[in-house]
# Entry
Amino acid sequence: MLDIRFIRENPEEVQQAAKNKGYDVSISQLLEVDEERRELQQQVDALRERRNANAASMKGGKPDQETINEGKQIKIELAEREGYLGNADAEFAKLLHQIPNITFEDVPVGGEEDSVEIKKVGDQNTGAKDHVDFATARGWLDFERGAKVAGAKFYYLKGDLALLENAITQYALDFVTKKGFTFMTVPHLVNQRTMTGTGFAPRSSDQSDEYAIEGEDLSLIATAEISLTGMHADEIIDEQDLPLTYAALSPCYRREAGAAGKHTRGLFRVHQFNKLEMYAFTTPEESKAMHERLLATEEELWQSLGIPYHVINIASGDLGAPAAKKFDIEYWSPVDEMYRELTSCSNCTDYQTRNLNIRVRRADGKVEMLHSLNGTAVSLARSLIAVIEHYQNEDGTLRVPEVLRPYLGGREIL
# Structure
């Protein structure tokens, strides 16, 4: 969430930033509730002081009736005002959590079509066979049985395709750990505080992406970013220990609500997939440099796999609530003859850390909010699509990218 002091001082900027992101929120309403709760807090504080003074006056002797009556009246008034304050605090928290992070000045304003290409790498070849047709013909991919077991958009990977996914995972894991990221395994279920704290607030109620566990304060994670953010909740980290850089491998579970109109064929948009996520906590002054580091790591990884791509600066209307800026790497699809999303990396500044109270202690003892960032190393389902589209042979076999061969026992062809 944003700092309420910043919102009070910059209401028009925050309102415009929310509008640019496509969020229907009212900063004026938030500030009205904020003012109401502050006034109520002052009234409650004053009544508590009177209560304490009244109680103190009754010690050491028998109080007179007037003092007793005054104490009773204060108790009634205090209970009433505390009730009003509780309601105002709840409404304030609800409204505050609906406000998305503001964007950096160099983020283009607009929808998905307004995102700006900043780099292009590799050729735009054409003529490949669709990954579903290619993999199904080899007996590697089974959506029909996945649907029988779990419903539409669930699937089985079999044989060499499952081994290829494992090879990409192991290669990417080696790659990022050599870059200094500490490998983590994480909980696949998180409580609502962690889910809300990471800022995965949908623009509308029908866009909620999470699978909630009925009867429990738990939801399945949509990305390891959620678990990694929550790991340091309510902690103060010494500046000398920063940056903290992690890499976490996990399944990701997504209802994909609100995905209408998005490319959904085959493995591109599914309800469960594996992903290796990079994550960082930094000081505010280092977060922009860390964002560039995450992007550079992603680019180097995909260049090593020989997949053509471009990098885009995502427009405001296509950003989620937490991100102040996001880069996407989109691979060139020779099947669709267009670029398709492959990875992303986001700078969330202090939006998530403020929600979860994650702070840094400076060398001079000052305590302030950290910044958090995340970046996808490999999203395995989409990674398989990219490799199949770019490494298939006309005879129905698949060439193994050179860097993956050591992870497949030296095999060159699948």
